[in-house]
Amino acid sequence: MAEDVNPEGLETADELIAERRAAMPGQTPDTMTSWQRPITAFIDITNLWAGRLTCLLLIPLIFVMVFEVVSRTLFGTLTDWGMNDLAIRLGLGPTLWSYDLSRMLGGVLFMLAAGYALLRGVHIRADFLFRSWSPKTQATVDATLYLAFYFPAMLFFFWTAADFWLDAFEKNERAMDTTWAPILWPARLAMPIGAVLLILQGIAELFRAFDQMGKERERLFVRILPFYLIILALVFAATFFPKVVPFDDWWEAFAGGGAFALQKSTIGLLMLAAMLFSIFVGFPISFTLIFLAFTFGAWGSGSAVTFFLMTLQVNSTMLDDQLVAVPLFIFMGILMEQAGLMERLFKAVQLMMSRTRGALFIAVLFVSTIFAAATGIVGASVTILGIMAARTMNKSGYDVRLAAGTITAGGTLGILIPPSIMLIVMGPVLEIPVTDLFRAAIVPGLLLAVLYMLYSLGRCWINPSLGPILPADEQPETSPYYLIEVTAVVASIFVLGWLIVAGASGNLAVFPLAGLVIPLVWIGVMFGVYRWTRTHRPGGFYFSDLWYEFFMGLVPPTILIAFALGSILAGWATPAEASACGALGAVVLSLAYRKLTVERFYDALIKTLEITVLIMFLVAASNFFGAVFSNLGTPKMLTELLLSMEFSVAIMLIFVMALVFLLGWPLEWVPIVLIIVPILVPLLEQMGVNLLWFAILVAVNLQTAWLSPPVALSAYFLKGVVPQWDLKDIYFGMMQFMVIQLIGLVLIFLLPGFVLWLPDWLSAAGAKPFFSYVGYVTPGN
Predict the structure, then answer these.
(1) Is the model's pTM score more than 0.70?
(2) Residue burial 434-473, b: 16+ Cβ < 10 Å; e: rest
(3) Which of 270, 291, 318 is the last residue of a domain?
């Protein structure tokens, strides 16, 4: 029963995680070979503590970025009001060190915890085929790929990263792109240390695979190990010490002018085919990409160029100032989830609309839209919505299929509505500012939410039995002037929203910090009027209890989200800075609602670390893979080939969207955005496609894939918390909204103004007429 599910025990933040390990670190099966058990336990405990300590870096990361925002904002405010001398005496103003320190902390965060993530089983797999195999087959494939892919890749990674760090240490190298110019070797040290921790954890995972495959197969692998180690040592020596083992001379004698002497672009095609085959085998994608990039890069361009590309791409990922926002927005979302605000707001909206058909559908979609801006974690949204709504929907006689559809569709909105983690990751891939992506995604996100709501209410209007009015005993007590209550509350919240937007954009600067103070004063006025009417009841009018719940569930998170997003959209804070302020605000909210304990806070830190490593390590690996692929010249060759077919731009885009949709079944958004999309960019640029518009098309498309049986994980999250709902009914419900989603995708495709109008309107240049926007430039125009 849904009501019997304990949300505290659910892992709601791991929809991208294929195999989160349930066993405690350090625990080893009794059946494991005796000499392997202590080694495995020691490695597990080492990486466990590496993760436990590394997650604490989130605290100084938040502090550094919030300090910068507060110091810079106060300096600007005091200066604007003629108090520049005071601001200088207080030491306020932009800092020299916060930018560099924050991006270094962000890079160290995911690199040092990579081994911990492997221990916890959170490195993403494309397990569409893997999950259907028997445990023995899975273990055998894992062991084979650890030996063939993982250990060579991690050994090369360690040696190259160590050399990269040592060079920076010996030269005392400094960053050259900032005024502070910090020494780089302390942050770069995280790369070889992270590689060592990964190699150690790989040994533990190999021993686990040995145990799971059975003693007979294990003996075979153990016999092979000495020969494997000799071959691995020879390959390593030939790569890094070619005078000792002249492998290049042997290879030239064997392959020169023969079948292996291929054009670089052809080698890139083989690399792409090997990637598509390998990731579907089910091994963690990050390590597969690193191995393939090393192998095919060395074949096509030589080992020196390949190793340079590896260090360059991993280092640039660690120092990417936009990607720092990833862990902070994740942390903000997890804390908002823990604060229980979704449940409070859902209950209030449910009661507010209790006399309306489909009230629970409205409540689900309203709450999911609000909290999409707080947490882009689909698993969390779907799970909590299911726990909150399913019991009441069942009791009220709601249609199961329509109920399942609204919950799963509403839960996916976090992929699209800012601050979407997917958009933050997609920005550097397409070389588009994350601010522009956020602005472009707002209208499409609201469009889809409105389409969902119109469909649900339309179905209830045609067939009232799908969403009947709530029973009289569940309807709230209200004053005789309920319509006035609704009007007054909605109007006051609209005024609050306007004040927040005006304050964030600087239009309330009538005195220092007016943009913050005036909205807070308005909140005080709202609360005072509420309490006064409750006490005096003029003419029998008063505000019902439900409005207090509605206010407490809606306003605090809305203010937090509005200030975080408003500061980004207004341009006075970067996404990373806004995410830090949002994370701190989520901590304050959790404390105010008495939901934050030391255990909950630390749990949020460790969950944030796991999801961050999952995303960021794959970003680094895919950037390396993409750099090698591009260096081989294959993207240019594919672009020329496709353009020679002389398809129209529209037909080519439809084909690309169909490809993304199909890949969205077996793959998560992370590999699609990081691997597939970069391959398409040269083609899109040649066709004159607006990449901002294309990015939102991809985001909506991948959101659609979450609602596409049979692979859509939303169904399994919902089934997990509402076991009495048949999976077939959940699928049918999802498919209804998948059609609505496709309609939304077609509207955005045909009317690019849905994406491009708002970014222009928020810019200094201003917007063009809505229908004048185009998504691509037709050749010849």
Answers:
(1) yes
(2) bbbbbbbbbbbbebbbebbbebbbebbeeeeebbbbbeee
(3) 318
